[in-house]
Protein backbone atom coordinates (compact mmCIF):
# COMPACT_ATOMS: atom_id res chain seq x y z
CA UNK A 1 0.00 0.00 0.00
CA UNK A 2 2.93 2.36 0.64
CA UNK A 3 4.40 1.81 -2.80
CA UNK A 4 1.46 3.27 -4.74
CA UNK A 5 1.33 6.37 -2.48
CA UNK A 6 5.06 7.00 -2.97
CA UNK A 7 4.68 6.41 -6.68
CA UNK A 8 1.75 8.87 -6.96
CA UNK A 9 3.56 11.45 -4.81
CA UNK A 10 6.68 11.16 -6.99
CA UNK A 11 4.70 11.50 -10.22
CA UNK A 12 2.80 14.54 -8.91
CA UNK A 13 6.07 16.16 -7.75
CA UNK A 14 7.74 15.60 -11.14
CA UNK A 15 4.74 17.08 -12.99
CA UNK A 16 4.60 20.11 -10.66
CA UNK A 17 8.33 20.82 -11.05
CA UNK A 18 8.09 20.45 -14.83
CA UNK A 19 5.15 22.86 -15.01
CA UNK A 20 6.89 25.36 -12.72
CA UNK A 21 10.09 25.50 -14.77
CA UNK A 22 8.16 25.36 -18.04
CA UNK A 23 6.04 28.37 -17.08
CA UNK A 24 9.03 30.36 -15.87
CA UNK A 25 10.81 29.78 -19.16
CA UNK A 26 7.76 30.97 -21.12
CA UNK A 27 7.38 33.99 -18.83
CA UNK A 28 10.97 35.02 -19.54
CA UNK A 29 10.35 34.66 -23.27
CA UNK A 30 7.23 36.85 -23.03
CA UNK A 31 9.25 39.47 -21.13
CA UNK A 32 11.90 39.44 -23.89
CA UNK A 33 9.25 39.87 -26.59
CA UNK A 34 7.65 42.83 -24.80
CA UNK A 35 11.04 44.40 -24.15
CA UNK A 36 12.21 44.06 -27.73
CA UNK A 37 9.08 45.82 -29.04
CA UNK A 38 10.21 49.10 -27.40
CA UNK A 39 13.42 49.26 -29.40
CA UNK A 40 13.61 52.15 -31.87
CA UNK A 41 13.04 51.32 -35.53
CA UNK A 42 15.97 53.62 -36.32
CA UNK A 43 18.65 55.53 -34.43
CA UNK A 44 20.51 58.47 -35.97
CA UNK A 45 23.36 60.70 -34.87
CA UNK A 46 23.77 64.30 -36.10
CA UNK A 47 20.58 64.84 -38.11
CA UNK A 48 19.77 67.84 -40.29
CA UNK A 49 16.21 67.52 -41.67
CA UNK A 50 14.69 70.02 -44.07
CA UNK A 51 10.89 70.18 -44.38
CA UNK A 52 9.45 71.53 -47.63
CA UNK A 53 6.08 72.46 -49.08
CA UNK A 54 5.71 73.15 -52.80
CA UNK A 55 9.48 73.50 -53.17
CA UNK A 56 9.89 76.03 -50.34
CA UNK A 57 11.64 75.20 -47.09
CA UNK A 58 9.15 75.41 -44.20
CA UNK A 59 11.47 74.17 -41.48
CA UNK A 60 14.93 72.93 -40.62
CA UNK A 61 15.53 70.58 -37.67
CA UNK A 62 19.02 69.92 -36.31
CA UNK A 63 19.75 67.43 -33.53
CA UNK A 64 22.72 65.39 -32.37
CA UNK A 65 20.53 62.32 -31.62
CA UNK A 66 17.22 61.03 -33.00
CA UNK A 67 15.38 57.84 -32.04
CA UNK A 68 12.48 56.83 -34.29
CA UNK A 69 9.80 54.66 -32.69
CA UNK A 70 7.54 54.37 -35.76
CA UNK A 71 7.30 50.62 -35.09
CA UNK A 72 5.02 51.13 -32.05
CA UNK A 73 1.23 51.33 -31.91
CA UNK A 74 1.49 55.02 -30.93
CA UNK A 75 4.53 56.10 -33.01
CA UNK A 76 6.82 58.94 -31.97
CA UNK A 77 10.28 60.37 -32.59
CA UNK A 78 12.48 61.24 -29.64
CA UNK A 79 15.33 63.76 -29.53
CA UNK A 80 17.05 62.96 -26.21
CA UNK A 81 19.87 65.46 -26.72
CA UNK A 82 17.62 68.36 -27.76
CA UNK A 83 16.72 70.16 -30.96
CA UNK A 84 17.39 73.35 -32.84
CA UNK A 85 14.54 74.20 -35.22
CA UNK A 86 14.02 77.06 -37.65
CA UNK A 87 10.44 77.53 -38.91
CA UNK A 88 9.71 79.67 -41.98
CA UNK A 89 6.41 81.38 -42.71
CA UNK A 90 5.09 82.12 -46.23
CA UNK A 91 7.18 85.31 -46.40
CA UNK A 92 10.27 83.37 -45.23
CA UNK A 93 10.30 85.11 -41.82
CA UNK A 94 11.90 82.80 -39.28
CA UNK A 95 11.05 81.54 -35.82
CA UNK A 96 13.85 79.80 -33.90
CA UNK A 97 13.19 77.04 -31.37
CA UNK A 98 15.67 75.41 -29.02
CA UNK A 99 15.13 72.82 -26.27
CA UNK A 100 17.17 70.27 -24.35
CA UNK A 101 14.74 67.42 -25.14
CA UNK A 102 11.85 66.87 -27.56
CA UNK A 103 9.30 64.23 -28.59
CA UNK A 104 7.28 64.45 -31.80
CA UNK A 105 4.07 62.40 -31.78
CA UNK A 106 3.20 61.28 -35.32
CA UNK A 107 -0.54 60.56 -34.86
CA UNK A 108 -1.34 63.93 -33.25
CA UNK A 109 1.34 66.15 -34.90
CA UNK A 110 2.19 67.53 -31.45
CA UNK A 111 5.78 68.22 -30.43
CA UNK A 112 6.60 68.23 -26.70
CA UNK A 113 9.59 70.52 -26.05
CA UNK A 114 11.25 70.23 -22.64
CA UNK A 115 14.19 71.71 -20.74
CA UNK A 116 15.25 75.33 -21.23
CA UNK A 117 12.85 75.91 -24.12
CA UNK A 118 13.62 79.15 -25.96
CA UNK A 119 11.53 80.44 -28.86
CA UNK A 120 12.72 83.54 -30.69
CA UNK A 121 10.99 85.40 -33.51
CA UNK A 122 12.90 87.20 -36.23
CA UNK A 123 11.45 90.45 -34.80
CA UNK A 124 13.28 89.80 -31.52
CA UNK A 125 10.50 88.46 -29.29
CA UNK A 126 11.83 85.75 -26.95
CA UNK A 127 9.77 83.29 -24.92
CA UNK A 128 11.48 81.07 -22.34
CA UNK A 129 9.94 78.21 -20.32
CA UNK A 130 10.66 74.67 -19.14
CA UNK A 131 8.03 72.94 -21.31
CA UNK A 132 6.17 73.99 -24.43
CA UNK A 133 3.93 72.12 -26.85
CA UNK A 134 3.77 72.89 -30.57
CA UNK A 135 0.72 71.91 -32.63
CA UNK A 136 2.19 71.50 -36.12
CA UNK A 137 -1.18 71.40 -37.92
CA UNK A 138 -2.34 74.72 -36.46
CA UNK A 139 1.17 76.22 -36.08
CA UNK A 140 0.36 77.05 -32.47
CA UNK A 141 2.48 76.99 -29.28
CA UNK A 142 1.05 76.49 -25.80
CA UNK A 143 2.03 75.75 -22.20
CA UNK A 144 0.59 75.81 -18.70
CA UNK A 145 4.05 76.30 -17.20
CA UNK A 146 5.70 79.51 -15.98
CA UNK A 147 7.21 81.62 -18.74
CA UNK A 148 9.24 84.74 -19.44
CA UNK A 149 8.38 86.83 -22.51
CA UNK A 150 10.76 89.54 -23.69
CA UNK A 151 9.87 91.92 -26.52
CA UNK A 152 10.14 95.62 -27.46
CA UNK A 153 7.44 96.49 -24.90
CA UNK A 154 9.39 94.99 -21.98
CA UNK A 155 9.68 91.81 -19.98
CA UNK A 156 6.69 89.93 -18.63
CA UNK A 157 6.37 86.82 -16.53
CA UNK A 158 3.40 84.55 -16.17
CA UNK A 159 1.96 81.10 -16.09
CA UNK A 160 0.07 79.69 -19.05
CA UNK A 161 0.40 81.11 -22.54
CA UNK A 162 -0.47 80.20 -26.11
CA UNK A 163 0.54 81.97 -29.30
CA UNK A 164 0.94 81.69 -33.05
CA UNK A 165 4.34 80.71 -34.42
CA UNK A 166 4.95 84.27 -35.64
CA UNK A 167 3.98 85.80 -32.23
CA UNK A 168 1.22 87.89 -33.89
CA UNK A 169 -1.48 86.40 -31.63
CA UNK A 170 -0.58 85.92 -27.95
CA UNK A 171 -2.99 84.79 -25.22
CA UNK A 172 -1.69 84.66 -21.67
CA UNK A 173 -3.45 83.48 -18.54
CA UNK A 174 -1.63 84.94 -15.52
CA UNK A 175 0.87 87.66 -16.33
CA UNK A 176 3.00 90.13 -14.40
CA UNK A 177 5.92 92.41 -15.25
CA UNK A 178 6.69 95.61 -17.03
CA UNK A 179 5.18 96.15 -20.44
CA UNK A 180 3.61 98.89 -22.54
CA UNK A 181 0.13 98.74 -23.95
CA UNK A 182 -1.54 100.70 -26.74
CA UNK A 183 -4.96 100.11 -25.16
CA UNK A 184 -6.66 102.63 -22.90
CA UNK A 185 -7.84 101.43 -19.51
Automatic annotation (TrEMBL):
InterPro entries: LipoPS_assembly_LptC-rel, LptC. One of its GO terms (cellular component) is plasma membrane. Pfam families: LptC (PF06835). GO terms for molecular function: lipopolysaccharide transmembrane transporter activity. PROSITE patterns: PROKAR_LIPOPROTEIN. It comes from the Bacteria. This is LPS export ABC transporter periplasmic protein LptC.
Amino acid sequence: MNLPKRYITSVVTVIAVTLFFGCESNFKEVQKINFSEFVPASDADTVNIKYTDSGKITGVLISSKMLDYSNLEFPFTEFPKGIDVTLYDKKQKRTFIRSNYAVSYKNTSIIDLQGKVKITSEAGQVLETEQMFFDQKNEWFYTERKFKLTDAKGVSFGQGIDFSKDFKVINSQRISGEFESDEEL
